[in-house]
Structure of ATP-binding cassette domain-containing protein:
Amino acid sequence: MTTRNSAAAAGSQPVAAVAGVTVRYGSTTALDDVSLEFRSGVTGLLGPNGAGKSTLLSVLSTARRPNSGAVALLGEETPGRASRARRVRERIGVLPQSFGFYPRFTVLEFTEYAAWLRRVPAARRRERAREALHLVQMEKHADARMGALSGGMLRRVGIAQAMVNEPALVLLDEPTVGLDPAQRVGFRTLITELGERCAVVMSTHLAEDVAHVCGRVAVLLEGSVRFTGTVAQLCALPRADYGDDGESGDGAVDGSAVEAGYLHLAGAGAVTT
Ligand SMILES: Nc1ncnc2c1ncn2[C@@H]1O[C@H](COP(=O)(O)OP(=O)(O)OP(=O)(O)O)[C@@H](O)[C@H]1O
């Protein structure tokens, strides 16, 4: 049990928004008329395998253009001119579910390479790479080969490469998958810290991740948004009849309450708060 990220629940301006977004892969509709806004702090995208979470992150990263609908990122309407999309991309950090790397690269070389890809000026690349590695507590492994890292260390370097351009928006696709319980706890702390620096959108199918890290949450089921609101509001759904808001006296929620809210939605219509 932990304290929720209150910054995310605050009524700040949206950092990113999608309106009426539909994405199809052939005959599969991965996102169906999805409208969502993302603000500062950590927002969770919660849903089962195939719900459309990764597809939504690919739209938010500008990697995929929707078949229809509007996308606004960091104050810019996209998709639009290539130069505008590139400008936006330079202010976004992405941790995909898996990322490729040359195994003989050192951790520092890989992070500097990510800085180059994100068009960080040459004079600042090394400094930024070191700062990003410090953020994820990997600076003492800067000279280690990428191919020799454990899964948890690789995920940390993955976060470092996502933060190397000092992004305003960070997209994390299932960042805790494959981590052992202790690593997962450490990662939740790290993601909470990221949410204090920039807006973070994190996809997950783990209710515990949402309970520990997120201020707001959107539940996606079969490509549709079934809930948006605070984590406490999601927890309150099954208990609404009793006037229980799912929140303990210290503003904390737990994973089982999030899971109960999530399961409640399986048989319910869309809820927006
Ligand atoms: N490149 C693709 N080609 C065809 N269908 C795809 C492609 N990518 C995703 N899909 C389909 O789109 C739907 C949404 O997939 P998506 O990967 O966005 O879901 P997800 O919620 O991220 O799932 P997971 O938790 O398993 O990563 C699924 O039915 C999936 O099979």
